[in-house]
Amino acid sequence: MEHQINSWEEYEKVYAESVANPEAFWANVAESFSWKKKWDNVLSWNFDGPDVKWFEGAELNITENCLDRHLAERGDQTAIIWEPNGPKTPEIRLTYKELHAKVCQMANVLKSYGVVKGDRVCLYMPMIPELAIATLACARIGAIHSVVFAGFSANALADRINDAQAKVVLTADGSLRGAKVIPLKDIADEALSHCPCVETVLVAKRSDKFCHMQAGRDVWLGEAMDAASTDCPAETMSAEDMLFILYTSGSTGKPKGVVHTTAGYMVYAYYSFVNVFQYQQNDIYWCTADIGWITGHTYIVYGPLLAGASSVMFEGVPTWPDAGRFWAICDKYQVNQFYTAPTAIRALMAKGLEYVAPYRLNSLKVLGSVGEPINEEAWQWYNKYIGKNQCPIVDTWWQTETGGIMISPLPNITPLKPTYATRPLPGIQPCLLDAEGNELAENDVEGLLAVKFPWPSMLRTTYGDHDRCKQVYFSMFKDKYFTGDGAKRDADGNYRIIGRVDDVINVSGHRLGTAELENVINEHDIIVESAVVGYPHEIKGQGIFAFVIVQEACSQEALEAELKELINTEIGPIAKPDRIQVVSGLPKTRSGKIMRRILRKIASGDVSNLGDTSTLLDPSVVEEIKEAVLGTA
Ligand code: 6R9
Hints:
It is built from 18 helices and 30 strands. By secondary structure, it is α/β, with parallel strands linked by helices. The protein has 2 domains: 406 residues, ANL, N-terminal domain (Rossmann fold, 3-Layer(aba) Sandwich); 124 residues, GMP Synthetase, Chain A, domain 3 (2-Layer Sandwich), CATH 3.30.300.30. The strands form 8 sheets. It has an 8-stranded mixed β-sheet, with helices on both faces. It is globular, with a radius of gyration of 24 Å. The relative contact order is 0.10. The structure holds ligand 6R9. The site of ligand 6R9 has 23 residues, from helix 10, strand 20, strand 24 and strand 25. Its EC number is 6.2.1.1.
């Protein structure tokens, strides 16, 4: 594959060049794409705006690079193998030619409902081929896609639709998850009753569930596609035209719409994919993420297709019909590169080796991990039982905001170190800072992780609120992008990501803002005040611990059930608290700020060193909380 690094010496050389002359480096990578018009200027930037432009003046369409470009050479090669929820249901294979035709049909359907370049389209869909097709169909006609993970609730969906002012929503009648069928259209309908901006709802058929179709608004997607032409010219896009919005949690209450643009995202998605997975022609690659998250955007849809890869897309869950499903799929398709999350590894590890034993797993060459720190035990298990000590593990650190993998080993090239994401990819200039923003230039240090030079797939803004983008990412430290993560760098220059240093918790690899959770909990009539923190959880990485003050005595059982239900409807099942503790007060400073540090320590069961509590308004609440949580004062 073009621009693939083959040895450690080459990595060091290429990395040095990419830092010495970033523009020449990225221009060279960009040369291998098909452009309607080449760029006038590779990069202009300042992090004060922030205002970052890559490949300015260029014109292109990303779907021509994902699809059309491959037709002559590999039109009949499989682009996507779709493995359905049920293991006995036949899979669907789409060749590049077939995928191209379907994307054009769906693009024509969108056009027929009035979608034009720049319009926002919301995709609230299960992991069915139509989701990948819809993503590309939007890009084909220059509409901006906003994929909302289908596990989010009606309210969360409504907020995202309204924030983006989406004109069209795509959904399905139902979503099959293991033995369950989720009535997706009903949830969408509930959201849509609060979304006057939506004119048309296109509904894919996936279940036998009846769903209401609102006349004049709702349309069956399958029928509309069948009637549409398979020819749709690709809209001409400028390099910096928006490609998509993806909402993510931050430390304040409202999710942010992270914005990615066209050319830079394309170049980096390709470059990082071929290097981190060392994909070779005819390999079968599988990323288990959902397209509702950034990992699915970059490493199920765009990256693999840009590289002309064959990739697996899985509708179901890892534990159904049993905990061997992932391994069965690896054997079934002879998967070569497998990319998943630590939370899945830990969950499957806990089920026991009898679910791994029946499978050969001999096609695997590279194993990947993403979403949260991978603990040593999970790393060793993944390495020994899945990789059979033969497959390098790439622990890939990145974020919704970075668009692509930033720090990761290159398999069979970078020396591995368990739990370390190791080295930055070429073109990526990370640094560690102290609290004042001074760069810790030496090795063997720990600090706040930032990036000091732009890279092509970095976020450009937060939708509808550029100032928020500036505040959250670019004002903490001058001339640096701040990640929100803490990290350490060992004596050899390898990075290990420690975790979030802000009020974001990472539950099973999903980001949740504690403020977002508290806002919902506080809506309950009986709640006076709440504070939510993360604590170590064996499977999920972090669990959700909610401390609540109630207005009147109530049964713990009823309170838990009601709060869980409330969170379920307001955000979704992923955000349900693991522990709810009623307390009579929260540890606050004299200025009224909750000392979360103390709550975090107590929630983790560690009260050895709570630090100075003398500045608290009422230090005695700490004793009470300790007693309530741990049964000791
Ligand atoms: C791609 C993705 C981003 C946050 C990030 C960090 C955590 C991701 C990690 C990791 C340790 C890794 N994170 N990968 N922590 N090691 N390999 O997950 O994006 O959902 O935006 O989350 O996830 O804390 O800041 P996103």
